[in-house]
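Case study B.
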Amino acid sequence: SQTIHQWPATLVQPVGSPLSLECTVEGTSNPNLYWYRQAAGRGLQLLFYSVGIGQISSEVPQNLSASRPQDRQFILSSKKLLLSDSGFYLCAWSAPSGAETQYFGPGTRLLVL
Amino acid sequence: DAKTTQPPSMDCAEGRAANLPCNHSTISGNEYVYWYRQIHSQGPQYIIHGLKNNETNEMASLIITEDRKSSTLILPHATLRDTAVYYCIVRLLFPGSARQLTFGSGTQLTVLP
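Model:
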């Protein structure tokens, strides 16, 4: 069966510091991968998605970036965090063909102070 | 993707069936009905989806009316761990594509002991 991991689970960072969040998927090959952000009491905002290694599409211009160095690894980064970057970051995957169901990881709660 | 309407909150006694309604009167013929839930501080969890026929899996049953303008998610024997926000989503499927998943405000289901 497929499993998706995210770490860290929680993170408190000062404004201006760098960020690296990691997501890995097990049990599937060539998945579509997604980074979402969920602000408190609000819906999901798609930040990036990837359909293959090195292929990243950005949905929202901001100080975040994403990379996919391996087939089942998706990384969210920032060089300098802003207060507005606080939120709940969710990684998700979907099969490359067939059903388009997205499956989410446990999330990383980021607080920028 | 068509718009959905859900009641903001519902209560259910533990051990009883929880029936969560969703209206999607503008649904088109090719749009699927999806259900997700999000337990507090966790990532969203896929529950079930369907097009026309009723569907059942180990988590729930999905009943779609014949005109497809509404549906009901049924949790047959609700437990305290089923307390969550439940999201009904109507969505065209593009197999193999990567698209944003958009949640509405959902229904807060509280299972009472």
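Residues 65 and 77 of chain A are 5 Å apart (CA to CA). The remaining cases will be described in the next quarterly update.
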